[in-house]
Amino acid sequence: MFIFAGPQQARDVTLRVLLSPGDAVWLEEPAHPRTRASLEAASARIHPVGTGGGAFDARQAEMECPEARLAYVFAAKQVPIVPIAQPMAMGAAGALLDFARRRDAWIIEDAQGEDYILPRQGVTLHSAAARDRVVYLGAFGRALFPALRIGFAIVPPSLAEAFAGARAIAGGYASLIGQMIVTDFMADGHLEQHVHRMRKIYAARRDCLLEAAQRHAAGRLVLGGAGASMQMVRLLPQGQEAEAARRAEEATDLLPREGGHGVRTVALQLNGEVGAQEHLQQRPAMGCTW
Fold this sequence. Notes:
The chain is an alpha/beta fold. The chain folds into two domains: 2-187, Aspartate Aminotransferase, domain 2; 191-289, Alpha-Beta Complex (Aspartate Aminotransferase, domain 1), CATH 3.90.1150. Helices cover 38% and strands 16% of the residues. The chain contains nine helices and eleven strands. The protein has helices at residues 7-18, 33-41, 58-64, 90-103, 160-170, 176-187, 190-217, 241-250, 276-282; strands at residues 2-4, 24-29, 45-50, 70-73, 106-110, 134-139, 151-154, 223-224, 231-234, 266-269, 288-289. The strands form two sheets. The chain has a seven-stranded mixed sheet, sandwiched between helices. Strands 8-9-10-11 form a four-stranded antiparallel sheet, with no helix packed on it. It is globular and about 55 Å long. It starts with a strand and ends with a strand.
């Protein structure tokens, strides 16, 4: 396990170790713009892989881009473009791990900030039998507070030496005091209790958002992904993509992104501030973000 000064540094160092300029990468879409920006900075050739069928399709991706050296996925929370989203299923995970073994490729499982996934189902690739091909990225920013700036990477033993060298020249180390505090917080069981309590709070706010959408916009606002995480996706009716793209470009709080597979989606993220549930009950002001 390697500790980094935040999730972005963990991602950048990992890509530096695993990729050479021009390498092909499968990227699960829709993905956060920062993930794509990191891959572009590493001079990777990005091949988007959609989850329109509800699962990451490694077999289809291999037919389209068999030379991929890396798959970048969010196994714990596949960003949905179907009404009911789920974490990566066992079959999809098995196909992806089989590809990595046969092609001597690597998998990045990005679970940074997914402590509050509701519910926690499916499979994490790092817990599977072939985790020797998986680098697991995590962070404590969402579970505790963003200013903590502690990210981490759990890597296979075969990559330990390469990661140690890359980490040594990356600079910007996480605060030792912060690491000691988080260590004690975890060892005493407080982190587990905190996450358990916050999951209940966010579940109530999620249910409140769904009820508000049904009450104020029934038939006009179709949400997907209600069971996958704190985020949801608005499904656009056929023929409204162009108008949605125009309005997205005019919005100041929306980060539009073409998914690379002909589908544009808008994610509605629950507001984590105190009192958000009461605001939704009075007037459902929904912030849009990726």
